[in-house]
Amino acid sequence: MNQVELRRFIREALNEDIGAGDLTTECLVPANHQSSAYLMVKQDGVIAGLSVVAQVFQELDTQVVCTPLVTEGQKVSKGMIIAQIIGSTQAILTAERVALNLLQRMSGIATLTRDLVDQIEGSNCHILDTRKTTPGLRQLEKYAVRMGGGTNHRFGLSHGVMLKDNHIAFAGNLSKAVEKVRQQVGHMVQIEVEVDTLEQLSEVLKLDVNAILLDNMEPDILKKAVKMINGKVWVEASGGITPETIRSVAETGVNAISLGWLTHSAKALDISLDFEMEMGDK
Question: Which of 109, 153, 178, 268 has its CA 20 to 30 A from that of 210?
Fold first, then answer.
């Protein structure tokens, strides 16, 4: 993760929540009070984001120590304590919500990703994320995908060319779109083209592209498409794929499956922060 961007994001998230101050904590807790707390998972899942949690607390007080008790990407069971936090009671209470929001969100994505990776085990197919991420959270959500065993697609629009139907319509036709793009980006930049019919695929295979996205095709059509491609370019499937159909899609021979709902619809993993003892004044 880009640490400069991450720190800026954490500051903005804390500022959004704290505003002019944490009225409740500042009224009740002395500034020099110290405590020990822990993070506990309340359902089975995969953990991602403990290093981010540590940075959230330390942004308010550099003396807060957050010690992970599991590794990133580790499967955990309900009731497991995954980290201990020792330091300023004020800092812990004030940063708690932001820290948990991020940890729960990231761990939810990692959990969903791992479940899908396990479902297609042995198929030689990868699980990919997309750009359908929460604005401002893309870096963290894509990191969570990796912790769940998935693979990142392009991070943003500048990380590769992907020609979709609207781009092709604007260019006039598929051949013109590829030719114009290739002239401008040169041979070092990857070009991927989205197709949704075998007729379009036949045309694309005659062009200078590096990857093909087979969009909204049923498994039997995907098999035909993969046979037509015959290993000439890298190929991914996307669109209309569900947990129930993902195995059959993976077995068609595609290199990867990209899923928008991997990030935009993942359910947060239930994690709590609880105090285990008061340590008193500093």
Answer: 109
